Amino acid sequence: MNADFQITPLSSKLFSFYFKMNTEELRDIGAYLFQSDEFPCYPCRVSLTDAKVGESVLALGYEHHAVQSPYRSSGPIFVRANAVEAKLAANEIPEMLTHRLLSVRGYSDKGLMVAAETKHGSDLESVLRQQFQMDSVDYIHIHNAGPGCFNCVARRA
After folding, report:
1. Contacts of 18 (CB under 8 A, 6+ apart)
2. Who contacts 65 (Cβ-Cβ below 8 Å, separation ≥6)?
3. Mean pLDDT, to the nearest integer, of 52-71?
4. Residue 77: what pLDDT?
């Protein structure tokens, strides 16, 4: 079974209009725009990089697992203003994942969790390859283990 993987970011098109909204409009939908005050701290789900100190960052709720299963899920994410979508090579791990404790969750083609492991980001490649060796794993979600926030999706390359 092919254990090569491709990590993909969220599309910048999903978020560009939020940066045209004012503070009240953002508040009305439960979103918040702020300046990053720490590095590394706010992982952007579009660029797959941590926001630098002083960058504008959007915090909002996002449905990252829109499936008809008990594992349908949403949660908070961060997106940097003017973020350029990451274009990663097969088997490439973004640096923002390597220094975090991660929850790696393998899902079937029916959106059911069939594998789950918590590992340090420095071990992410081996965890992805192990899960993709399972026939039942169709795709993998990578979350920050502590806060539980969704980061990105990995699929077979």
Report:
1. 26, 31, 33, 58, 60, 79
2. 71, 72, 73, 74, 107, 111, 141, 150
3. 96
4. 97
